[in-house]
Amino acid sequence: MQATPTPGSRLVSPSDHALILIDFQSQMSFATKSIDAVNLRNNAALISRAAAGFKVPTILTTVAEKSFSGPMFEEITSAFPGQALLDRTSMNTWEDASVIDEVNRIGKTRLVFAGLWTSVCIVGPTLSALDQGFECYVIADACGDVSTEAHERAMERMVQAGVQPMTSLQYMLELQRDWARTETYDMTTGIAKQYGGAYGLGIIYAKSMFNAHEG
Asked: Which of 23, 51, 55, 157 has the fewest Cβ atoms within 10 Å of its own Cβ atom?
C-alpha cells in the first residue's frame, strides 16, 4: 500500500455534483422546530453563495409557491439572480418531471440536497435517487423538520440507506479544500465572514489584528 497526496473519491468538488435546494419557503419554515429560523436562513445563504461562487449547477424547486407555501428564501434566490424556480405539486421532488428533466440536463450522478422538511421533501428524493443509482449527500444543518425527532429519524433513515450527511460550512470548505487556491480564497473567506458564525469572526479578527490569512 502506497499513500499519495490525492483527495478521496467521496469528497465533493465544484465540478462533480449538482445541488438541489427544496422548498425553502415561508409556509414550510413556520412549522420547522428542529432548527431556528435564523440559523436555517443563515445556512441556506451560506451553501447558496458557495454553490454560486464555485459555479456548482443548482436546481431551485418549490411546492405550491403561489397558492400556499409562498416564495423561496431571498437568501437563496439572490445568489442565483434570474434563475427559474421549478414549482411542483408533488411532495417528492423526484416525482416531478420538470425537476428530473433538469437533473438529466445537468448530467451529474452525484447530488447534494438541502431543504424543508427533512422527513418528507428530503427523504423522498434522496431515497428515490439512490434507488436509480445516484450518489446522494444531505446538508443536515440546512434542513429542518416539525420536530427534532422528525429531523433526526429522517437523517438516520437516509444514512442507513446510504445517503452521506454533511454540514453547511463543511460543504463550502470541501469545495475550497486548499487555501492555496487563490482564485476562490477571498470568496470563500468572505462567505465565511458573513455567514460562518464564530469561524467567520475568527477570520475577521486575524485579518484585522495581524493581517493574517489561511493560505
From this structure: 55
